[in-house]
Give the backbone structure.
Amino acid sequence: MTTLQRAEAAEHALSQELDRVVVKSVLFTSGERDPRQPVTRPPDDGRLYMMGHDPRLPKMPDRPTLFDFFRLRFGPSAHLLQSARLAMKNGVEEKIVLACLLHDIAIAGFIRSDHGYWSAQLLEPYVDEEVAWGIRYHQALRFFPDESVGYRYPELYLKLFGPDYVPEPHIQEAYRYARNHKWYMTSRLITVNDLYAFDPTVQVELEEFTDVVGRHFRQPKEGLGFDQSPSAHMWRTINWPTRYL
Ligand SMILES: [Fe+2]
Ligand SMILES: [Fe+2]
């Protein structure tokens, strides 16, 4: 058996233990398999299909808050927490501390590719327009130095993408647009405080930002995902990633 076949067999065994059939979204497997091929489904054996909470995941409260998503759905958030703490230490405005805390939440819990845009879209209904704007464009600004604030092209990107990587035209265009925008510095300050050198000995707790979030994040009373905002469906998908529809 190949590694992929073994993984599929293990997954098949696992899904047989569930009392609901789980069919993964194309995006979850595209690249590992040819997305044009039909999805191979385990036999349902008369079981119903997944339409809500997946028992393999920790249960979310009925009215989930931002912090519930951090704790129960996002991957380790040390990068976000350490970046936000650095922003605080650097004495930037509170809303920029919030922007740093949330700038990569798409990577933490949703979709990595084009993460600035996804993060901004998730957050737009709940934060200042300027905060969401800054988060959207930090993705492009990360690739372009700004000596005026001591921001250099990240060493890490040389390692990750190689010395020959040149941002694609749409990223360059986004950069030029952001560079001339009145909120440029908001987005730039996210990149300045965007830490890639994690200090594994530094433990930052979410609670350190309770007040900042309380003041600058409009937590919906119905819970994130159940408030009919333009991005509520995205929060629901993070909550219930394996729903059939
Ligand atoms: Fe980022
Ligand atoms: Fe980041």
Strands lie at 20-21, 48-49. The chain has a mean pLDDT of 93. The radius of gyration is 20 Å. The first strand starts at residue 20 and ends at 21.
